[in-house]
């Protein structure tokens, strides 16, 4: 910002008179124009699509944002169009070909290709040879923080619930359709979302960071399988589906929600809290595979509802305008309800036919697992191509 004219232009652009009069700006001062990370990445590479959930990590004492980027198309030959739109766009081709890192302090942006075979990103790489770097050049500390993108996983889940059938006759008759189960959140029924979890898969020797979601048969509530996406290197991007035996009944999420409601001691306590000027929020149900069975965990939050008396937004005093005073006249009082931050009060855990609600996860787990000798790892594993 070398001249006063530039100060005037920037003050007009940012609607900030302090830029004109501050003493902290000098000839070497610079303004970061695109300060939001979504603006920065789209200004640099508008031809990519971006994940809606960038996340912040710490690396070598600095803060970085990591965001997934995709190449997409809706004209890929002989490919099914996804019913789930991505960034409001229909598509039948998507590749998570790029990982983007943004330095939260100085705004430096780096684009790393993940090594996925993708002719679209290869074409853009030839057009902009200095834009993309191979993933091997990403600092090792940052590389340990990459995760499988949820937006891509949701599209794959939506397709796989039909295309898991590998028998032509079964597929033609649609005999074995799967569906994404529902859950209760608060007091409403909603479609279950994928969730990240640290889990030891049956074929591995250590825990790893995965993204997973269970399946139920179409129009039924029992569990039939679950899909997992691995995030840790060198297995990043591998998908595993665990198909459960059809002859064995394993509770699905809504069946667990119903069994919780049937527990008189739990339902009585939750109803009592709801009558004391508080709102009971039942959080997201987590289905956690353990051997050949599952542990179900659901947090319970309590939110205090307070009555507040304040000026109605439509009749609050307005700032003066030349010639008249806006908002003059009597001011109506508006009584509205404001909620405090929800507080974790209980944790509900279910295993086998046992259900416990305790003050913390450890106590609830101990109560439902007491007397369990061992858990066998017998679920069949099918790798998703």
UniProtKB/TrEMBL annotation:
InterPro entries: UPF0182. Residues 308-337 are annotated as: Disordered. GO terms for cellular component: extracellular region; membrane. Keywords: Cell membrane, Membrane, Transmembrane, Transmembrane helix. Pfam families: UPF0182. This is Uncharacterized protein. It comes from marine sediment metagenome.
């Amino acid at each position: 910002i070398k001249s006063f004219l530039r100060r005037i232009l920037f003050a007009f652009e940012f609607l900030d008179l302090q830029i004109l009069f501050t003493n902290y700006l000098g000839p070497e001062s610079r303004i970061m124009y695109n300060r939001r990370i979504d603006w920065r990445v789209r200004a640099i590479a508008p031809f990519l699509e971006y994940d809606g959930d960038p996340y912040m990590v710490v690396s070598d004492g600095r803060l970085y944002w990591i965001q997934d980027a995709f190449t997409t198309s809706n004209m890929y030959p002989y490919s099914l169009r996804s019913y789930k739109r991505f960034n409001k766009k229909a598509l039948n081709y998507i590749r998570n070909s790029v990982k983007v890192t943004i330095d939260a302090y100085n705004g430096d942006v780096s684009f790393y290709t993940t090594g996925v075979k993708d002719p679209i990103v290869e074409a853009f790489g030839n057009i902009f040879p200095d834009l993309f770097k191979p993933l091997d050049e990403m600092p090792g500390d940052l590389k340990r923080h990459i995760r499988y993108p949820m937006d891509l996983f949701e599209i794959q889940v939506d397709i796989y619930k039909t295309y898991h059938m590998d028998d032509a006759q079964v597929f033609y008759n649609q005999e074995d359709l799967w569906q994404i189960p529902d859950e209760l959140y608060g007091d409403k029924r909603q479609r279950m979302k994928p969730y990240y979890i640290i889990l030891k898969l049956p074929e591995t020797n250590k825990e790893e960071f995965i993204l997973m979601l269970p399946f139920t048969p179409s129009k039924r509530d029992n569990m039939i399988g679950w899909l997992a996406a691995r995030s840790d290197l060198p297995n990043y991007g591998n998908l595993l589906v665990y198909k459960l035996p059809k002859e064995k009944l394993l509770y699905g999420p809504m069946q667990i929600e119903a069994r919780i409601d049937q527990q008189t001691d739990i339902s009585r306590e939750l109803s009592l809290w709801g009558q004391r000027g508080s709102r009971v929020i039942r959080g997201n149900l987590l289905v956690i595979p353990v051997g050949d069975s599952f542990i179900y965990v659901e947090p319970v939050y309590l939110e205090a509802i307070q009555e507040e008396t304040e000026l109605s937004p439509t009749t609050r005093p307005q700032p003066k305008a030349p010639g008249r005073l806006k908002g003059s006249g009597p001011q109506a009082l508006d009584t509205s309800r404001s909620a405090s931050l929800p507080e974790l009060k209980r944790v509900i855990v279910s295993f086998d036919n046992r259900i416990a609600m305790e003050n913390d996860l450890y106590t609830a787990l101990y109560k439902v697992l007491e007397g369990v000798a061992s858990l066998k790892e017998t679920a069949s594993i099918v790798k998703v191509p």
